[in-house]
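Marked as duplicate of an earlier ticket. Keeping the data here for the record.
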Amino acid sequence: MTLKRSALYDLHISLGAKMVDFGGWEMPLSYPLGTLKEHLSCRSRSVVFDVSHLGTVEVKGIDAFDLLQRHLSNDLGKITPGRAQYTHLLDGQDASVLDDIIVWWDNDQRFLVMPNASNTERVRERIGGEDTTETRSILALQGPKTRDVLAKVIPESAGVGRFRVGHYNFEGVEILVAGTGYTGEDGVEISIENEASVKLFSRLLEEGVVPAGLGARDTLRLEAALPLHGNELGPGITPIEARLEWVVSLSKGDFIGRDAYLKRKESGPRFLLYGLMSQSRQPVRSHMKVFGKDGEIGWVSSGNFSPSLSKAIALIYSYQDLRFRDEVFIEARGNKLPFEVVNLPFIAKNS
């Protein structure tokens, strides 16, 4: 299979990026600075990610609002044009999360639905609309210094609020900026035409912004306990098990997956998401088995070394109810490593 490339591919290569296959796209995993320093730069300064692989399905027209209300779990009626919302696309049979999505509500009759890269076609087939992913680039500028950088590069956009969306101008090019991200830090995501994306990325680097790859993006989202589809979300996992019931609005009326969701809610979750932390630095990985005092109780959905905490952390699903500070074990290479149940997120979100 030929991998897709973003308009920034050549720039990534010139910066020494290590490229990997992610959702059918050849994207930067890390740059010569390394994932650890890229991660810490996001927590202390500002970094920029190329996230052009994320999907964009444009849904527009007089019926767009009602169509999305029918297909998505959250209630768009809670927001207005110029805002964004996190939501789920549920399976109609068992309420599994087929994808978790950000919707940018641009104007009365235009919505940009942003699926995960590998799910873009599945989402488009379900909700309709036009896949415009390859017509634009998306840069995620994240970190506590993000607003300072925006004030220099795109001054008018520096005030865009959390989960707000606005049109701005970068050197004569119209851009769309949303106060969204996937790191637990303050930041924005910028949709810009492909031809201007290299110029914007380069301008951000001139201001001292650090380029960061998917490796740091994953450790950042894990520390903030943000779910990843295919790990915390997917077949057999509803928002109930993932502790994301707030993403489902039962008061808005009928939507696909509502009845199945109510059945699962009535029967209760089969397993639940928990956070674990170790005193060791040895990372654990997804699919590793989790054990309690009396045997196997679940599995790791995501695990890694936390650069901010200098400890191993993990998100797990457990069939057994766990409490704060309970000790469990994760089997890694024949050894059972001790972990303690902790509150989520692992670090406080600054966004």
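See parent ticket for discussion. The chain is about 20% helix and 35% strand.
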